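Example (one chain per record):
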Amino acid sequence: MTPDTAFPEAATLDDIRRNLNVVQLRITQACARAGRDPAEVRLLPVSKTVEEHRIRLAYEADCRDFGENKVQEARAKAAAMADLDIRWSVIGHLQTNKAKYVARFAHEFQALDSLRVAEALDRRLQIEGRAMDVFVQVNSSGEASKYGLAPDAVLPFARELAAFSALRVKGVMTLAVFSDDTDRVRRCFVLTRALRDRLRQEAPDGLSFDDLSMGMSGDFEIAIEEGATVVRVGQAIFGARPTGDAQYWPGM
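Predicted structure:
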């Protein structure tokens, strides 16, 4: 994994545009190595801890989707930037008592790993008259400190999701082990891709498991080589965060 210090802060529009160009080039190169079309990979800029003015700069640089881990932070940013047509993706663990907030502002939720959250989110979305794209989170590293379902629990869980009409199931999300050992990182992605492929064959009709959200600033190229269709990149675009990843991702 690339250390945080490798990412200087992007303070200007030119900085952000330059970083976006570099990330897009790396996506293109990773796709070329894997024999894939870069159009198959969606870049999700992760704006956690990033100030409003720099998110607005990224918007000016043509970013429209942004990922946030913490509901309170995401909710405040969505309200402050309601003048922009931003699609907010919540990519961190969700407590049931905060489902009502996510149902109001978010367009996507990438960390679904319990029926209690599914029920709460579906109920609140029904009240709001909305639907939401969701990804099932799998714990591909097997670390007890990480959120997400165990791989063998995902298919039974997916079968239950057909009951929630406001949840549009789109795919699977994972966080690889946080390690400099690229073989260990790659194994997480290979496992998740194989699980996704099985879900495409065995999940109930009406549920789509076409998407694979995996890979962050330090490992997204490996993720693309193993089939990622969504990569969640923050520090390589905005620069290193003032707090470590352990503040946002458990087990890291």
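Caption: Confidence is low (pLDDT under 50) at residues 246-252.
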